[in-house]
UniProtKB/TrEMBL annotation:
Organism per entry: Mongoliibacter ruber
GO molecular function (one): N-acylneuraminate-9-phosphate synthase activity
AFP-like domain sequence ranges: 287-344
Lineage, opening ranks: Bacteria, Pseudomonadati, Bacteroidota, Cytophagia, Cytophagales
Pfam families per the UniProt record, alphabetical: NeuB, SAF
CDD domains from the UniProt entry: SAF_NeuB_like (cd11615)
PANTHER family xref list: N-ACETYLNEURAMINATE SYNTHASE, SIALIC ACID SYNTHASE
Name of the featured protein: N-acetylneuraminate synthase/N,N'-diacetyllegionaminate synthase
GO biological process: one example: carbohydrate biosynthetic process
Length: 344
């Protein structure tokens, strides 16, 4: 599958449903979440491909990560392994997504995982915020030559600059991201979307970890062309990892519909008068009207002119140019004033 970020974002926002590990390690649940994504109208589904020891040392106790349901696991890597999609299920899951009209791809966590994803022909890659400075992994992904989307949670300008330099031969997008789950509104720092776009001259957007659609819509309004949002079948699911900051099916569908509506309304970076406004200006704009009958040779006084709808006379800005002017013909009351009615 050949894929181009530039082409996919040219005419519409690229919307990614982040399934992540909300399948709880179940292929069947992954299929169900793909169905939810397809029904919502998103463009792509993203997974996370890993083993626990790709991410954390074997010494880290499970209970060191507060807020996650790690009951029954002594170590964090054991919990991570329990929610990982088995490697042997990836190809079938990817093909299922393709058959649903979606673009499947994943976030790798090691060079070995990159090699695996190459074997199943992932069309693009996502770099997680935690790996913004993982030069070994970044180089492995860069070597594929495929498009790359990078999240910037916890990142600095210097870290982002170094990461960008590695992907000089890849199509690249940089997403604003806050590594806070869920992201509090006061921490969203949404203007960073514009900052990234202007500073780095790249495709940008938002990896949104909030439980509202507001910030994704704001990111689009600020010029973001890629929106990534975690999805779940229910935020009440307590067994596993990322459900608590994910969108449920109706919310996801509303997000897609809202983004598509917003896209229609963004328009151009200049003032324009729409065709509908051209029609409406006759009804809704005021103009100059004679408010009484006057005869040829009469001079127009201030009291003779009213500024009212409909817009059938000269603009109100011409008011002073009519005062004291002589009429060249008889004019009835409530007639729009025009220059051909006066001398000079």
């Amino acid at each position: 599958m050949n894929f181009s970020l530039k082409q996919r974002t040219k005419n519409s926002v690229f919307i990614i449903a982040e399934i992540g590990n909300n399948h709880n390690g179940s292929k069947k649940t992954a299929f169900e979440l793909i169905d939810i994504a397809a029904e919502s109208g998103v463009d792509a589904v993203k997974f996370q491909t890993f083993t626990g020891l790709d991410i954390v040392t074997p010494k880290v106790k499970a209970d060191e990560y507060k807020g996650w349901n790690v009951k029954g696991y002594a170590y964090w890597f054991e919990f991570l392994d329990s929610i990982a999609l088995p490697l042997e299920d990836h190809l079938e899951v990817f093909n299922y997504a393709i058959n649903k009209g979606l673009i499947p791809f994943s976030t790798p966590t090691s060079s070995e995982i990159v090699g695996f994803l190459e074997k199943i022909n992932t069309p693009l890659y996502k770099i997680a915020s935690m790996d913004l400075t993982n030069i070994k992994l970044l180089k492995s992904v860069a070597d594929t030559g495929k498009p790359v989307i990078i999240s910037t949670g916890m990142g600095t300008d210097e870290e982002i600059r170094k990461a960008i330099s590695i992907f000089s031969k890849n199509e690249l997008a940089i997403l604003h991201c806050i590594s806070d789950y869920p992201t509090k509104p006061e921490n969203a720092n949404l203007k960073a979307v514009s900052y990234i776009k202007e500073r780095y001259k790249v495709l940008t957007g938002l990896s949104d970890h909030s439980v509202t659609n507001v910030f994704s819509l704001g990111a689009v309004a600020l010029g973001g062309r890629i929106i990534e949002k975690h999805i779940t079948y229910s935020r009440k699911e307590k067994r596993k990892a990322e459900h608590h900051f994910s969108l449920e099916p109706k919310e996801l569908k509303l997000l897609v519909e809202s983004i598509r509506t917003l896209e229609k309304g963004l328009g151009e970076n200049k003032l324009i008068r729409t065709p509908d406004e051209d029609l409406n200006k006759f009804k809704y704009r005021r103009s100059l009207h004679l408010n009484k009958a006057l005869n040829k040779g009469d001079r127009i006084s201030i009291e003779d002119i009213s500024i009212l709808r409909p817009n059938i006379g000269d603009a109100p800005s011409e008011f002073d140019n009519y005062i004291g002017k002589e009429l060249v013909r008889d004019i009835g009351p409530w007639t729009g004033l025009n220059k051909d009615m006066i001398k000079g």
